[in-house]
Write a structure and sequence with these properties.
521 residues, alpha+beta, Outer membrane efflux proteins (OEP), four-stranded antiparallel β-sheet, two-stranded parallel sheet, 13 helices, 65% helix, elongated
């Protein structure tokens, strides 16, 4: 196999213009060849091993198993995603953080059942089997005629069992604890709604992070190529004595700086793809870009006051804080009720079967007894070392803390609704302004280029104009991405963010123009 990358015999100017792209192509082909060579060597080793196994008569089975294993290795852990929807659905199934939060929510829902249990009937079954040997003095044993006699070697073998059922009739502390447990369960559900909305924003943020990294790299690469052309032109003009060496040095310095930015941007693409892989648990190979036709406008309602109202009514963080207050109040009631009497009813059925042997010829006795017991148990706490009073004071302070946290959450939600509404409004204006700025920067570059050709502008002016144009282009794409994220965060603050919002955004993806991860190596 022969590998060859050559620029041929083209002219100096054309060769220098295409140097970067050819270098990139060579590098890509060399890496591909290296990977192909490694794979070929590995497969050769596997085939040699299979040939050795053939001597044992297992060729067919081993070949089938190896083929299946190779297929699994090649296909496992890869998600050939192209759109936001595919990444979103994969992340919903595989994101470890969301799974952990779902488990925490499920655990929280059980709190009410835990606190309800003491209020329900409690039943237990007990059994005892005992054997004993005793010497009893001064006791008239069974079978003795008159007087007092000693019983020696008295042996007993007793088996007993009982079934006990108790029922709480009055216990206000347990009742209020049960009410607190129900609030904690509802709080767990509300917290999971918070986690789900954060998950939606996180997925879109990570997805857009890949697109932004690619835009940054493509912008840096285009800028590098443009500056490289200016560098080659500067060298040619210097060779014929039209400009000073300082212009060439300025161009070279700018080119080197831009090349560093390009390398950094290329590395950030890999990092961005790794962030997607962390969400989905799979290697993502393709990402669909965002359409240039994405509508950039305010959602309904447009009024800021309406968004504040929605946030106060629907924000799940407020639900979490409100339920925390409710739970703390029930907890305070429970601790205050610890001073009150408690009343329990109980029923017990018992059975006892025993054999007693008195020894010394005095005979034995069999005792078989069954009985039922019904009881009412009243407990009046008098003093517990001050623990009940301390718990009551602690619960009161916890209630105050929860109420103040609710107030802070309300203010934070209102401020968030205002901030994100203003951010979206500003983003809309920024996108429009950046779009116009691209036109202006292009016109300025054309004018500077013309001035440079006639000698009225120097190389520094031209390089600045080139860089300004690419900065504006990158700022335009950044503004569009920021508009998307701020819009989702506004919906999140209002408590109205759903999967449908993410899927609506997916309609503006262009899978036919998907970026392949392997092209950025």
């Amino acid at each position: 196999m022969v590998r060859q990358c050559s620029t041929g015999s083209r002219g100096v100017h054309e060769r220098m213009l295409s140097r970067l792209s050819l270098k990139t192509a060579c590098t890509y082909r060399e890496r591909s060849f290296a990977r192909l060579t490694d794979s070929h060597q590995w497969l050769s080793r596997e085939i040699d091993m299979l040939r050795n196994v053939q001597k044992l008569g297992w060729q067919k089975k081993i070949l089938q198993a190896s083929a299946l294993a190779l297929l699994c290795v090649s296909m496992s852990g890869a998600l050939h995603a192209e759109t936001l929807e595919q990444v979103f659905q994969s992340a919903r199934q595989n994101d470890a953080r969301l799974k952990s939060q779902a488990a925490q929510a499920a655990a929280g829902r059980e709190t009410g059942n835990i606190y309800k249990a003491p209020l329900l009937p409690q039943a237990e079954l007990g059994a005892t089997k005992s054997k004993s040997k005793n010497h009893i003095q001064g006791y008239r044993c069974s079978g003795a005629s008159t007087g007092v006699s000693d019983c020696d070697n008295v042996r007993s073998n007793i088996t007993s069992s009982n079934l006990t059922v108790t029922q709480t009739l009055f216990n206000m502390e347990q009742w209020y604890d049960f009410q607190k447990g129900k609030k904690i369960g509802e709080q767990a559900d509300a917290q999971y709604r918070v986690d789900e909305m954060e998950f939606m924003v996180r997925v879109v943020d990570v997805y857009i992070g890949v697109l932004h990294a690619i835009d940054t790299y493509q912008t840096a690469l285009a800028q590098e190529k443009a500056i490289e052309r200016q560098l080659e032109q500067a060298k040619q003009r210097f060779d014929v004595g039209l400009i000073a060496i300082t212009d060439v040095q300025e161009s070279q310095a700018t080119f080197d700086s831009t090349h560093v930015e390009t390398l950094s941007a290329l590395g950030n693409i890999g990092i961005a793809f790794e962030a997607v892989e962390q969400l989905t648990g799979q290697r993502v190979e393709k990402i669909a870009p965002l359409s240039a036709d994405l509508p950039v406008k305010m959602l309904q309602p447009e009024a800021q006051a309406e968004w504040e109202k929605l946030a106060l009514e629907n924000n799940p963080r407020l639900s979490v804080a409100t339920l925390a207050v409710d739970a703390s109040r029930e907890n305070a009631k429970a601790r205050r009720s610890a001073h009150l009497p408690t009343l329990y009813g109980s029923f017990q059925h018992s059975n006892s079967d025993g054999d007693i042997n008195y020894g010394n010829g005095f005979g034995s006795m069999n005792d078989d007894m069954n009985g039922n017991t019904v009881a009412l148990n009243l407990r009046i706490p008098l003093y517990s070392g001050g623990g009940v009073s301390a718990a009551r004071r602690q619960a009161y302070q916890q209630q105050i803390a929860a109420e103040e946290q609710l107030t802070d959450s309300q203010r934070s939600v209102v401020q968030g609704a205002r901030s994100y509404h203003l951010a979206v409004t500003t983003d809309i204006q920024r996108v429009a302004a950046q779009k116009q700025a691209i036109v202006s920067a292009q016109s300025a570059l054309d004018a500077t280029q013309a001035g440079y050709e006639v000698g009225t502008r120097n190389i520094v002016d031209l390089l600045d104009a080139e860089q300004r144009l690419y900065r504006v282009k990158l700022s335009y794409s950044t503004a569009r991405y920021q508009f998307i994220l701020d819009t989702l965060r506004l919906l999140q603050t209002a408590g109205t963010l759903t999967d449908a919002n993410v899927l609506t955004l997916n309609q503006w993806m262009e899978p036919e123009k998907s970026y392949d991860r392997n092209q950025f190596k």
